[in-house]
């Protein structure tokens, strides 16, 4: 089994950050963990070469979290928003919450996805049958507004695929989505790729015991690959134990580059082009264009 330290090149292997292009495809910068230095966090991301951040609003669907995520995106031209009811909060989802969420999804502009949604059988903060029902309902909502979904799946691989397939069969499909912070098996990856999903890797791919996940990361097709931080969680090696933030997505890119035998800059440009294509967003750089086709 390989050591993660041998997978990650030293910082000096990266070029001048001003020439780099990275996208953090899943962050929670609107969270209270960033209240004291949010602007500084965004500036550090830009200095590291992170050109775009997809900020994901979660929590109580009527607690103002979604609005905070959207407000952050409206304030910063390099931030976009996704909103959706996390499986932890599925027990709070009712018709009123659905109507409120749908209103925000239809607001246009900075909201580019519904998520994160899915199943979490590790913590079980909401009953599993409720999680499945709310997951399926939000998949239908995403189709109604023609938005991709961002999927959270923890210790629920088989059931997650079952729900997606059932909804696709019933409706004829939609715009698919992203398996965020992927931690599943190679078999799971193959199934969601067949369904048209992107696979996004976070800092957990750098962890010492993550060799099976690194094998998945080696095999995901280049046009289906994304990177993320899931900040403030999932800080990558060598930053374990610290609050995660968008600038750290560069560490995950460097790990994937070593796994796939390319430069970190190429992972950055490739995943940025994938992000722009999938979410139908024009990024503020021409450096990714040759990856976009």
Task: Tell me what you see in this structure.
- Residues 1-13 have low confidence and may be disordered.
- This protein has a single domain, classed as Metal-dependent hydrolases (TIM Barrel).
- Helix content is 39%, strand content 15%.
- The protein is globular.
- Helix 9 crosses helix 10 (264-279).
- The chain has an eight-stranded parallel beta sheet with strand order 1-2-3-4-5-6-7-8.
- With 293 residues, the chain is α/β, with parallel strands linked by helices.
- It starts with a helix and ends in a 14-residue tail after the last helix.
- The protein has helices spanning 4-7, 38-47, 65-75, 95-105, 128-145, 157-171, 186-194, 211-219, 249-260, 264-279, and strands at 22-27, 50-57, 79-83, 111-120, 149-154, 177-179, 198-201, 225-227.
- It has ten helices and eight strands.
Brief write-up:
This protein has helices at residues 4-7, 38-47, 65-75, 95-105, 128-145, 157-171, 186-194, 211-219, 249-260, 264-279, and strands spanning 22-27, 50-57, 79-83, 111-120, 149-154, 177-179, 198-201, 225-227. The chain is an alpha/beta fold and 293 residues long.
């Amino acid at each position: 089994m390989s050591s993660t330290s041998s997978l990650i090149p030293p910082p000096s292997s990266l070029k001048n950050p001003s020439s780099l292009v990275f996208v953090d495809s899943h962050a929670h910068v609107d969270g209270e963990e960033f209240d004291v230095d949010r602007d500084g966090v965004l500036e550090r991301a830009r200095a590291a070469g992170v050109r775009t951040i997809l900020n994901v609003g979660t929590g109580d669907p009527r607690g103002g979290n979604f609005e905070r995520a959207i407000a952050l995106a409206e304030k910063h031209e390099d931030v976009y928003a996704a909103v959706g009811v996390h499986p932890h909060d599925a027990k709070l989802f009712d018709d009123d919450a659905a109507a409120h969420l749908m209103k925000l999804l239809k607001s246009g502009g900075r909201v580019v996805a519904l998520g994160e949604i899915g199943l979490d059988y590790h913590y079980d903060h909401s009953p599993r049958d409720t999680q499945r029902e709310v997951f399926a309902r939000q998949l239908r909502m995403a189709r109604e507004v023609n938005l991709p979904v961002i999927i959270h799946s923890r210790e629920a691989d088989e059931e997650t695929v079952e729900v997606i397939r059932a909804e696709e069969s019933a409706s004829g499909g939609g715009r698919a989505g992203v398996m965020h912070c992927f931690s599943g098996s190679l078999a799971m990856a193959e199934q969601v790729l067949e369904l048209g999903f992107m696979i996004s890797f976070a800092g957990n791919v750098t962890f010492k015991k993550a060799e099976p996940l690194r094998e998945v990361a080696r095999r995901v097709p280049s046009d289906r690959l994304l990177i993320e931080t899931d900040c403030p969680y999932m800080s990558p090696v060598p930053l374990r134990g610290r609050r995660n933030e968008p600038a750290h997505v560069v560490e995950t890119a460097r790990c994937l580059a070593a796994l796939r035998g390319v430069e970190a800059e190429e992972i950055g440009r490739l995943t940025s082009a994938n992000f722009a294509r999938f979410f139908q967003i024009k990024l503020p750089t021409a450096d990714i264009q040759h990856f976009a086709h």
